[in-house]
Amino acid sequence: MRYTFPAGARLRRRRDFQRVHRQGVRLQVFPLRIWYCKRPGAGGSRLGLAIGRRAGTAAVRNRWKRAVREAFRRHRHALSTPGDIVVSVSWRSGKKDVAKTEEAFLKAIALMNDV
Q1: How far apart are CA 96 and CA 114, in angstroms?
Q2: Which pLDDT tens digit goes with each residue over 21-77?
Q3: Which fold has domain 22-114?
């Protein structure tokens, strides 16, 4: 299995983000806030990032984005049904919580498989 993150695995359009927020299920696994919407019959899972300024400076926000993308890249094959995922960061988290990203993403995948 190849653990890549191709362009087709990214959410880009505003309407896709809005659909996930409207129709999706919200999960909170500290430090991540995740919206998940199934899309059966589609290609694979797609990831969208919504890391706001409250997460910190530009360097900290970029660190969050890299950590979330890496967790998605490594573990997206574990989802039982492909879906669109939008990830945000809890406002209570700090830059030290970036190290907890992969563990939180794995817990969220387990919850997504139950939905």
Answers
A1: 29
A2: 999 999 999 999 999 999 867 778 999 999 999 999 999 999 999 999 999 999 999
A3: Ribosomal Protein S5; domain 2 (3.30.230)
Residue with tokens 């797609």: 46
Residue 31's CB: how many other CB atoms inside 10 A? 22
Is-contact 51 88, C-beta < 8 A?
yes
Residue boundaries of the structural domains of the chain? 22-114
